[in-house]
Amino acid sequence: QPHQPLAGVKMMITAGPTREALDPVRYLSNHSSGKMGYAIAASAAQMGAEVTLVSGPVALQAPTGVQLLRVESAAEMHHAVMTTAVQQDIFVACAAVADYRPEAVADCKIKKDNSEMSIRLVRNPDILADVAALNSGPFTVGFAAETHDVETYAIGKLQRKGLDMIAANDVSDSSIGFNSDDNALTLYWADGKTELPATSKQQLAAQLLEQINHRYRIKQ
Ligand code: PMT
């Protein structure tokens, strides 16, 4: 039996992209593969946590010992998360959730009648901010995917959303971040920061969870 520092801890993790439907055959989405979030879920389960993984559409198998809830859109992910979020001890938001969705979903396939068309988008609910705002909710960890001014935006998200920790990744570097097998993270919390240098998403997940567990215990 491996060392189980997260035994008895309930952890919910979001992973993958969301798909925002335009019509029955089209959607808006992004390049998230789910690899980072699934690696965190697998590692948390190995460390003894009771893991619920809420995942957008990805091509990955459910990690061993993890309860997997599959969703498509940001609205579905929001619903799946909020149903049990208050019962969790730790929430990690690794999903690349679409910030906007088409205002209306066409019932039938949209036809190319005009030389131009525009699509009106409306804001999606912010899942991470809603979990962080719960009364006696879980210890919340957000991700920040940035292409520039990584530290400024990450600390802004930490403070504005009222998070316990944020993991920033620089997605302008294609060898790390979206869809690659490796990543690098900088973790920020209210009064500290630490760098987790580039390595496999599996290794990084274990290192991230060690840091989360440490800060979570301090907060208890
Ligand atoms: O899936 P991979 O290919 O392995 O790639 C991993 C990753 C790059 C997707 C991952 O490491 C990562 O950075 N995930 C967060 C991506 C993102 O959407 O970041 P953001 O800066 O736009 O969002 C900030 C935070 O708010 C994130 O924790 C996000 O999950 C959360 N959020 C955002 C919008 C929204 N409506 N609801 C949310 O919960």
Automatic annotation (TrEMBL):
Q: What is the organism field in this record?
A: Corallincola luteus
Measured against the full-length protein, the chain present covers 181 to 400 of 400
Which co-factors does it depend on? Mg(2+); FMN
Protein's recorded name: Coenzyme A biosynthesis bifunctional protein CoaBC
* Organism domain of life: Bacteria
According to the entry, every stretch annotated as the DNA/pantothenate metabolism flavoprotein C-terminal domain falls at 6-213
MF annotations from Gene Ontology: phosphopantothenate--cysteine ligase activity; phosphopantothenoylcysteine decarboxylase activity
| Function statement | Catalyzes two sequential steps in the biosynthesis of coenzyme A. In the first step cysteine is conjugated to 4'-phosphopantothenate to form 4-phosphopantothenoylcysteine. In the second step the latter compound is decarboxylated to form 4'-phosphopantotheine.
Q: How many cofactor units bind, and how?
A: Binds 1 FMN per subunit.
Catalyzed reactions: (R)-4'-phosphopantothenate + L-cysteine + CTP = N-[(R)-4-phosphopantothenoyl]-L-cysteine + CMP + diphosphate + H(+); N-[(R)-4-phosphopantothenoyl]-L-cysteine + H(+) = (R)-4'-phosphopantetheine + CO2
